[in-house]
What does this fold into?
Amino acid sequence: MFKAPFTIICILIIFGCSQEIPDKPYPCLDGNCDGNYWIMQDSQPYAYLDNNGYWHVYHMGINYFSIKGELDALNDHYVINGVPLIEVAFDSDYWVWIDNIQFTVPVYSYLGYFTSGDFYNPIPIGNISYTLEDMAEIYPPLNIVGYSINPNQCLDCPYSNTLLGTYSKYTYEPKQNIFFDNEMVGDTAKVIIKTTWNSDVGPRVEKEDIMNIVFEEL
It folds into this structure.
């Protein structure tokens, strides 16, 4: 009579019994993940949302304004040592590049002369003038949310999507500064905001908000 080895019997017993794995809870405590975003009035007191859903932002001499968010809280399962696993990505369709600019900056020597013995006021040894071509080689176009794409950046790599946009992580009150130069007055832009509740493994909720912005002159 054939007798199966003891190890084979144990394997059959293990795989023959179904073990129920408990489901992980829904990411948000209230059962519905929501977020709210607006332009902060302390960074841009002259901004308002019109009836058509467009934000009007007025340039006041400060070359930025801030977007603030308020997000629903995560289930405790997705909070590690008091840190919520939440992530917000900011992107836009508006790029800025250097155009028609030429300026001169002073050049200082590391061991140069100073106007006094306190070494706080160096004396320049010359000047360098930068032109549009010089700046274009040094600084690639800038997205108004605060990132740029350089010529050597890999856009087909698996991680390339993490290099596009700027991120706020591990906070229920994300904040992002947006570049706003007076040359932008009269233009419009879209700021795309992607919120992820539970940025780790397991159930997650992703939602996208779009802020339509009109740049105005005060």
In short: Residues 6-16 form the longest helix (11 residues). The CA atoms of residues 86 and 197 lie 5 Å apart. The two ends are 96 Å apart (CA to CA).
